[in-house]
Design brief:
Blueprint: E1 2-3, E2 9-10, E3 12-16, H1 46-58, E4 63-67, H2 77-84, E5 90-95, H3 104-109, E6 114-118, H4 124-131, H5 136-148, E7 152-159, H6 168-174, E8 181-186, H7 203-213, E9 217-218, E10 227-231, E11 238-242, E12 255-258, E13 263-265, E14 274-275, H8 277-281, H9 287-295, H10 322-325
Parallel strand pairs: 3-4, 3-12, 4-5, 5-6, 6-7, 7-8, 8-11
Antiparallel strand pairs: 1-2, 9-10, 10-11, 12-13, 13-14
Length: 327
């Protein structure tokens, strides 16, 4: 097992397949991409992803989620999905939803039961303003397709003050007739995304707004849940808030992240990374590197900031952009 110095067992690995996306969401994509961001030679091959995954499974990983960028634009994504499906794990996917219709049969063949779809607006014009792509109706159709095919679907919406904050109730209304789990995500700071604390819509503010219009029941959260879950009685679906900024959930974190260029991050906000790919290509044992990375994990949010004074200076945080880390 992979256990850090705080006794937290890590059995969940998120693998970014690539640092590219067919959308250009401002909260994720830096305004000025560094040269070499999309260099293929730096990226893990399908065979390397499979081997590294096998090492993690032998170390106790029980769940692997594939992310990006947008993982489904990678040409060998189907082969990767099928190769990982042979392991005794829960295999899951996070996507922007625009290409799901092309891969639905492979998802079923790989045994994927749960898909997270990023959708930050239910207004086509606002969707375009956020993503810079005219793909709203295709994404919505693919969400319906997932539900029709029996997948568990979570909708991830990053809430931004004065941008899509006024759509919170519309998202909740979606759960009346659809068995969706809508997750409102607090805006988080990453390199190049022009984070401003005034744009954060907190867990409390989101729930207070919803409770002003709906009867709301709290759902019991499972161990390691990052989302605080709620439900409107009688509705098919549910909603939740991922409160990374206002109410962190680091105490029982079980997650590790592997970037598309083979760097292991023990926290979404960690500035330290451990290179697994270069030693692997030299034929070296990567297990000690994995174990040392887990042991070095900080107690909370990468050890880079806290909110005791309720103020965060984003320029002091050293990290990658979100697209280079993986969703």
């Amino acid at each position: 097992m992979l256990i850090d110095s705080f006794g937290r067992v890590h059995d969940y690995l998120r693998i970014s397949l690539l640092d590219r996306c067919n959308f250009r969401c401002t909260y994720c994509m830096p305004h000025d991409l560094p040269k070499g961001s999309f260099a293929y030679a730096k990226r893990m091959s399908a065979e390397e992803i499979d081997f590294i995954s096998s090492v993690f499974v032998n170390l106790g990983i029980k769940k692997i989620r594939l992310t990006g960028g947008e993982p489904l634009i990678r040409k060998d994504v189907d082969a990767i999905l099928l190769s990982l499906s042979k392991y005794p794990i829960e295999l899951a996917l996070t996507t922007n939803g625009s290409l799901l219709h092309k891969h639905i049969d492979i998802l079923k063949q790989a045994g994927i039961k749960s898909v997270n779809v990023s959708l930050d607006s239910l207004d086509p014009e606002k969707f375009y303003a956020i993503t810079k792509r005219n793909e709203f109706h295709k994404v919505l159709a693919n969400i319906h397709l997932l539900l029709h095919e029996g997948f568990k679907v979570k909708l991830n919406a990053v809430v931004l003050a004065n941008e899509n904050e006024n759509e919170i109730l519309n998202f909740v209304q979606l759960t009346r007739d659809w068995p969706l789990h809508v997750r409102f995500i607090e805006f988080m700071p990453f390199d190049g995304n022009s984070w401003n604390q005034n744009q954060v819509v907190s867990h409390k503010k989101i729930v207070d707004l919803i409770q002003h219009h709906y009867e709301v029941n709290k759902i019991e959260d499972a161990v390691h849940d990052t989302a605080k879950k709620y439900k409107v009685p009688g509705y098919e679906g549910s909603f939740a808030v991922i409160s990374t900024i206002s109410e962190p959930f680091c105490g029982d974190c079980n997650r590790l992240r592997l970037t598309s260029d083979g760097k292991l991050k023990n926290c979404l906000f960690s500035k330290e990374e451990v290179d697994l790919l270069s030693p692997l290509r030299k034929g070296e044992d990567i297990i000690p590197l994995i174990e040392s990375c887990v042991i070095a994990k900080k107690a909370e949010r990468g050890g880079q900031f806290n909110f005791e004074n309720k103020i965060l200076q984003p320029q002091t945080i050293k990290n990658r952009s979100m697209i280079a880390i993986g969703g």
